[in-house]
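Practice record 12: protein with nicotinamide-adenine-dinucleotide.
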Amino acid sequence: MTGIQEYWQNYIDGEWVDGGAGRIDVIDPATGQLLAVHALADARDVDFAVQAARQVHLAGELAGLRPVDRGRMVQAMGRFLIDNLDEIAPVLTREQGKTLWEARVEIHGAARYFEYYGNQAETLEGRSIPLGARYFDFTVLEPYGVSGQIIPWNYPLEMTARSLAPALATGNACVIKSPELAPLSLRWIALAAEAAGLPSGAVNILCGYGREAGAALTHHPRVNQLVFTGSVPTGIAVAKAAALNVVPCVLELGGKSAAIVHEDADLDAFVEDVRWGIYLNAGQTCSAMSRVIVHESRHDELVDRIADMAEGLSVGPGIDRPAFGASMGAMISELQRDRAESMVTEAISAGANLATGGRRPKNHVGAFLEPTVLTDVTQDMAIANDEVFGPVLSVLRFREEDDAIEMANATPYGLVGGVFTRDLDRATAAARRLRAGQVFVNEWYAGGVETPFGGYGKSGYGREKGREALWNYVQTKNVAIRLG
Ligand code: NAD
């Protein structure tokens, strides 16, 4: 018995409703057992949600508020998540597979977006442009209206908060398509909107298949702006839909990010970075450190240390792992685990060697894969270019610095990158040359909600997080007044 409710509904215009496409089973990936059943939205449900959001926009219920009041509501949503953390965390763990402590970290992360963007609401200002004595000219930053947001399953709460918080803070009404593999915990986003006093229809949350509800949302003619976080092929479909309606879209896609480790790097500190970089959330993080490119003089020593660390992680059901520490949960599904496992097998046939992991832990039935380290990977192998989205690290080696940079830049992606060295000149030069939206020097994941995030190349376009994200959700209007 999981103790969670059996049937979960969609949230449209302030009401909990069934879905026109029926229901979907939500599976606990740690056990393979049915966890709950969720209402499944169809195109008609999406239309209701978009119309509800549009009404909120046209009536000025959000956009017409004084920004400080709107900002306070957004902040209250974050506090609501923290207040309900003990209830939300086990649901997120059971539907997604992550450890209970990771679920708690994710809820804090989601709350932080509401705190940050709630605070930013009243900082957006237009400007006055001088046109001579006979004119008065000013600009206004207006919300687009209805923001359609498509969410992936890896961090359902945090990814939702990342787009929803700045969209609401700038006065947009939102329709969110939750991930069909992990839709349950978004219920608390809807409850948070209600508790914060947002008008009905300002936040709508629907679970549905991508090809049905997702496509209906991205093609809807009354949606004014789109945010998509997910894979490259789906991102291309979303961008095409946005183009047909001539609406802007933000694409936050995948990555194959590399850390370059020089001979003078602090390896004790770096092994900790690897622990978080590739094994957090069982490697299902878009900005994961999926490649390490290490100077040949430190290669063997580093691989030994990483393998020791990986073998020290306790792998098993996330619900049994409440305490922050050296543990890792299930992947999202057996399908994803099988895909990752077969990528490891293919890499070995292409000439890579297994330093550790690569197997399913014997004592668990669910979607588990041991923390894996592949060595002797070269940049021409598929494993060095394709996103695994699992706990699989590829280690490559270099002799000349230029080669390291070239390898790091050799994939079609460009989400993040890292340089590990005590030489600040070398780090700064590398930071300039790496083609990635974010570069970490001596700490993977350095930064936070305040720092802009997004891709170069096939990792997408537009920026989320930081002040930059606000510009996704507003458009500039110029008002020029001819004086008498
Ligand atoms: P996905 O592309 O399969 O699905 C993402 C979402 O898109 C889901 O909600 C899905 O239902 C929906 N969808 C699917 N087809 C659709 C369509 N035709 N039209 C509209 N919506 C559709 O991705 P995923 O497997 O859920 O997530 C993993 C991927 O997401 C990885 O590639 C990862 O790197 C990426 N990701 C990127 C970021 C980032 O910020 N850059 C963050 C998290 C995940």
